[in-house]
Amino acid sequence: MKYLVIVESPSKCKKIEKYLNDNDDLNIYEVVATMGHITELKSLENIDIKNNFTCKYELIEAKKKNTDAIKKKIKTVDEVIIACDADREGEGISYAICEFFKLSVTKTKRIIFNEITEQAILTAIKNPITINMNLVHAQQTRQILDLIVGFKVTPALWKFVSRNTEHSLSAGRCQTPALRVIYDNQNDINNSPGKQIYNTAGYFTNKNIPFILNKNYETEEEIVDFLEGATTFDHIYTCSQPTKSFRSQPEPFTTSKIQQTASNELHYSPKDTMKICQKLYEAGYITYMRTDSKKYSKEFIDSATSYIKHFYNENYINEKINDLCNNQKELREELKKEPQLENREEEKYKVKKATKKVAKESKVGEEKEVNQKIDAHEAIRPTDISLKELPEETDSKEKRLYKLIWSNTLESCMSKACYYMITASLSGYNNTKFSYTSEQIDFLGWKIIETKKQDDKEKESHYNYLQTLKQNTIMSYKKVISNVLLKDTKMHYTEAKLVNILEENGIGRPSTFSSIVEKIQEREYVKKQDVKGKEILCKDYELDENKEIFEIETKREFGNEKGKLVIQPLGIIVIEFLIKKFDELFNYDFTRQMEDDLDKISKGEKEWHEVCKICNEKIDTFIENLAYDKKIEIKIDDAHVYMIGKHGPVIKCLKDNSFKGIKKDLDIDMYKLENGGYKLEDLIVIEEKPSTTDKKHDGIVLGIYENESVILRKGKFGLYVTWGENSKTLKELGNRPIESIIFEEVEQILKNNEATGNNIVRKINENLSIRKSAKGDYIFFKTQKMKKPSFFNLTGINEDYKTCELDVLKSWIKDKYSVF
Hints:
EC number: 5.6.2.1
GO molecular function: DNA binding; DNA topoisomerase type I (single strand cut, ATP-independent) activity
Family: Belongs to the type IA topoisomerase family.
Organism: viral metagenome
Mean pLDDT: 86
Largest sheet: 10 strands, antiparallel
Number of domains: 6
Low-confidence stretches: 329-375, 688-697
Number of helices: 23
Protein name: DNA topoisomerase
């Protein structure tokens, strides 16, 4: 017998093939890859809405060569075994393989494994199952819903907002609610300017320990009164008896949790985290990375327990470690109830059919399927807990992420950390109290792994000292400092926080979180950037040991933020339009309901086409009720409005319908704009028109390029521009009216023209290079999918970008501009 095993990723092939054939001298297994999905729904025309949403899938053109090769191989083997990933998408691809290559859905073997190790692969090959059609229905329903929302709502954005050619506007079933999360947070920020308070600390004892006051005063009068009262007040010292305190071990990694932790601790984006996890999984280092399980297999629990006993001792084993083990009895009963263990008639598996027919299966076959599904329900963990670090030659980012996974996994299997805690206090004027908390480690537990920041050494050093001081005695202060703080302010979200909120609100699933976060940035609705705070003149106060009160004026910035997600003007216009016209479709409850329905479909508890019908009818109702009759415009004055043009924000002159470009690098406050806070001169460059009598300068000044005025002219052969001694024809713009042309579109043409020249300073990869221009060197970025390149400046790089290590340069570009 010869077997062909079909997987998704080509990087798995050699490893899986080796494991299978190492246990068989005949080398009867060959492994090939589909390289992901092989078929697609190209448009709404592929969905027969009136016939229970029957779908017509088409081969992805780029996969034709590969599918032709697989088709030839299928003819040379005795049996095909499908080994796609153990999730909905994997099940959908498995079904597509059967359909496309005309394999039996009910008889073709399907194997599931949670890790690419010899034991896992061999166990899977000995216990094959068949395709779970409930999961297929859930995957295809998700695909249909996404297509319906995208193809029906997105045209409304093009019609009423803009048909932007460079970054096409779009709406999405999960993308838009995610944008709404950022928008709602921005509204909270705008409505929470903050309140100034005085935070006070008294420095007592010979060690000058800062004791924090338990009350924040709000006015200068109140804090001055307090400090004056403190000069004559007797501060009585007390210290509590030590009490035990425990620090719980971290939970096992789910997909969302690893994205959040990697973002917070390693500064990896969710997208990068998932890419690295994919590589680690395919290399056999970690288990499957798309999961919402917080449990480990029994075999791994046994392995981790043995490891902890060997390198530490039994006291370090999590006292509830068995709770981390898959509850196989309950899971077994739950899985046995799933209809896919009963439905086995191929014709009933077709997506266009809604009926079900039950056919009995043997107990042995059912048990195999249950066992494999139990093994697939695991948190992200190392496949071998004894492998603490990856080989030296491994990519540094992969090594760091693996170490994070290894540490978190081992810590989750270890006991709690135990501390002794004391609170030292001093009575304060006006019924207040100064307090200082100190703690000492009793038992490290999971913290012995030392991946987390160690506890404050200074606090620990004060633990014994504070207990030696005499109780109920008067203690004099060394100084009391009261500084202005801003409370009740809101912060922008990090990528990690957004993932957390998506999970809490049921927006998307673990496998889609990173792509959702990435999508709203690709569309330029949201930008990851630093946020400059506001500067406030503060009056701080200090009381010294000589009982003198000093007033200290200082400028202090509040609200500085690094690497946060900030909604852009385009994002605000888009989400406000969608909320106004499609509110129910994109509210959090409806989005969660859709995800819950997909889960029910995957369990056979809901008819998939009914879910599609409800969503489709809702969208059609909203579209029918659209009331706009023109593009969204924001009034600037009686003669001008702000709108989104073909190439970005523009000012439209109502008198002649001409357009003027917005000032370059202007950070527009949409809330200020919508409330009439801008004047025309704030938004555009007011240029003096060149003399029409001077033929040398005849034309329209559009803007500045390479420190020269760009002058638009119309000649015998059409439009062209000049700047300094340079000129360029504008064939790309055709015969458009000269008044309708804005600087930004001309600037893009000039940059594109420049990019094609022999001006490469340093090539980074196929998509990235450093190039030179008259204004200086810049970063050029263009992928095969991009119609036009993007340009970035080199401001802020500390290294010599011409000679530094390529990895250093790549890392800097990626961190600053999120491209690579």
